[in-house]
Amino acid sequence: MRTAVGEMRRTVVHLAAAAWTKPDRFQWFSDYLELHGLRGFVRIAIAFTTVLTSSIPFINMASPDGASDPARYTTAAIAGVGGCALALMWVTMSWPDRRRSVAFVAFADIFIALGLFSDGVPLAGLAGATVFAVVGGYCAFFHGTRVLVAHIAAATVVIGVLAVMTAVAGDPAMAVSKGMVVILANVVIPLTSQVLLGMLSSDSVESRRDPLTQLPNRRGLEQAVASVGRYRPRGADDVVVVIVLDLDAFKRVNDARGHECGDLVLAETARRLATTIAANDIPCRMGGEEFVVVGRRPLREVAVLGERIRSAVMAPNQGLRVTASIGVAWADAESMSTDSAETLVENLIRAADRAMYDAKRSGGNRVRLHTGPDDTAEECAG
Q1: Are 370 and 354 in contact, with CB atoms under 8 Å apart?
Q2: What pTM, to 2 d.p., does this model score?
């Protein structure tokens, strides 16, 4: 029995530690929604739910158990108007980043608390605290365990205060029973959702990552390119650039040194590629010894980046001199919309791929720039 209990305790501690250290999944889930065209629906759903929640303080004003004095009326009005403002932001502003999303959670909790405390009867506010579970569900979908735990902690404090107020008002048994129900609703449902969604997101991320290099694979690239459309041009010559890189004569490495050495070469190439490009660029292993980079930068930097990648790859790797043929293609970024990002990148990959093969036919270890729709390419001056 003790062994079983100890095993269960270790399992719970391991799962809790893994959940606590797992990175926030706001960007992953946002990209998933964008990839599947669901952002508009989610915007409306969140705004609609927020408006319904915000209307509760106004409706309660008409109840005998609702606001009963000017201070409570003011508190209820602040809660209702503040919540409606949050809803309006979802339909009038751009899709939020993680910081704005966390701020939404914080302000939603504040306005809900104000609405609950505006009720004239503490028991009514205590029963209404189940609405915190709506925000908990949002945290479970969009954020990691830390944000969810912070929300649950804030909700628990509010619930505890309302339960004490109910007990002081003369009904301690109801304070305990209703408090337990509300806490269960605000803890069990969001945490269960958090665990299940965390497992699903981990599986999804792993299916889009190359296990050898830890770079996105082809499926991962398809999801990641949606983010390219969100970057605003920094200047008149800002372009979307795609670089296709293929290691030269890689079969000789496997034949001479074995596949284990070949895997080490690929992993080191991926590491060098990731450290050479900008943080916003998207590196990918397409398969075999072929890699792709998608990014945005001024046109004047395109050829420089291609040459910088060629030089990084050519440095000694596992005691070998490994070289790469590189093709580069780009397109004007100013007119690109988010909807066309995937199609644009697909076309650029094909163009860069043709330039890469031209570099390979010319002897390898060189960069070729795709120069136009006629499939012509020119060599980059090293």
Answers
A1: yes
A2: 0.60
